[in-house]
């Protein structure tokens, strides 16, 4: 084992940095889209970086994956068809498939290498990839949503990297308009929406683009995510029709037939309590 | 203005790091107890480091100070006398004095230089230091609690650095026993209790020492705090008598006569929703 060193990621847009103590680089591949690295850390398990940005660690990915899946799925009345755009590490797919009511979950990530690396270094995240309800495909998520059958999906989860590089096209009006068309009545879109402390402008831009595309209601839920900028992260849920997104299937969430490390009905209620600093920035 | 550089703090005990982009060191003083530095950052305002550990930034200190003050004060039935041990930056004192019912608040930090630096570089945190209800003193907090009159205090807030160096004696049974003796019936002790993701052993040790000293009930509340290890932090409230610490003066908190950036009654309720990963580690 190598002598530990510190791997720091400096976030230019927030003026802050996160780092992990690592022992060695386990793997690196340059895919047609991006550079993927896997490091071994002393305390956080394995770490995946894409183009130098920390994406997943063994230790802390549960916050993000549980909130991205369970918050929208328990907010929807009866989600049967779920599409995940991005999500190549398969952690969101695993959480989605914990819901017995889900009949079909399609994961469409542009980069097959992300999933191959996840299978090798984060096998626990990929444990549901062979579920008969799952389709793991590698294609352009923008094209996939443009070609999706109208009113065929209940929940779309956009689990992408930041809005630069390959993921840029997942944060604009044209993409959201295609998502809206693909949603059935009652349908929801959820997207990771960066830090509510430092990146509120991005959340506002995203919500404006969703609104321009025709989405009717919005709610941004904060949660901890240590390895992302500022350690305080969020997802934004958008609804096809006007509705109160602070209401969710609380009784079902209380009785969820699976274990979690972070998400519970009470945590979901807590994430709906918007701190004044967020409410003010969002004009709510 | 100097060219920005990155100031990284590597947290040996969590294997993670936090950093800020800084432009220059504004001040540095070696007090009899510790080295205090002030840096100017590009996006987080000013930063205070004590012995190399980030203590306060202009931008993110509100999470910590609001939770350390308002969570225990709204959990107590009628807090009139408050003692803050440590807290030399005066941010907790400012929040405590927002409560009109508080008649007396004593801040006892061992290091006068911390307060002198706060007055100069974080004047907004010190804006209540001249409140007639406030006493800002510089003395050994351990001795202060050992000599405190029995049953004279309603809430003790231990707002200290980590349990190494000058603050080590604020995390043991002897100190807690003196706190217990100083509390009136209904009294509460609250202490910053490190990261619930990475430092659960410390929280368990702290709660065991509080229990050995005679405290009867405990509750650990998580909250975001970007500049501390993992960005997910906590405070632990201990009660003199057995009681349900998930109950607090919700109506008073809803109608609080002051503004906050993070704390609200709903955020307090949210912080009482213990994620399974914490509940499991705490055996709850």
Automatic annotation (TrEMBL), chains A, B:
PROSITE patterns: PABS_1, PABS_2
Binding sites annotated in the UniProt record for spermidine: 65, 89, 159-162
Cellular component per GO, a single term: cytosol
Sorted UniProt keywords: Polyamine biosynthesis, Spermidine biosynthesis, Transferase
Catalyzed reaction equations: S-adenosyl 3-(methylsulfanyl)propylamine + putrescine = S-methyl-5'-thioadenosine + spermidine + H(+)
Active site: 159
Coiled-coil segments on the chain, per record: none
Bilayer-spanning residue ranges: none
Ranges of residues in domain PABS: 4-240
Residues at which S-methyl-5'-thioadenosine binds: 34, 109, 140-141, 166
GO biological process: spermidine biosynthetic process
Signal sequence coordinates: none
Domain of life: Bacteria
Pathway connected to this protein: Amine and polyamine biosynthesis; spermidine biosynthesis; spermidine from putrescine: step 1/1
Entry EC number(s): 2.5.1.16
Pfam families, per database record: Spermine_synt_N, Spermine_synth
Enzyme class: transferase
GO molecular function, one term: spermidine synthase activity
Function: Catalyzes the irreversible transfer of a propylamine group from the amino donor S-adenosylmethioninamine (decarboxy-AdoMet) to putrescine (1,4-diaminobutane) to yield spermidine.
HAMAP family registered for this protein in UniProt: Spermidine_synth
Similarity remark: Belongs to the spermidine/spermine synthase family.
Subunit structure: Homodimer or homotetramer.
Stated name of the protein: Polyamine aminopropyltransferase
Species for this entry: Arenimonas fontis
